[in-house]
Amino acid sequence: MVLYTSMPIELVMEGIDRKYEFKEVEIEGVKLIIEPIGINQGKIVKLLSTNPQDFLNPNFSPGKIINFSAN
Q1: Counts of helices then strands in the chain (DSSP H, E)
Q2: Predicted TM-score (pTM) of this structure
């Protein structure tokens, strides 16, 4: 793969070796994949639903920080 960019390679490759930890939680009957950022907080990574209305709900937008119970 060839990448043409004016950015320094250090910026392009920053974080590439970081290990991500994801967790599946259910909030209001909707399953979400989150990246834990605290004890009971996480950032939404992906919405796992077959209901199109869930994707229109701004509370389930990717990148949003949510509180969840650690079960």
Answers
A1: 2, 4
A2: 0.70
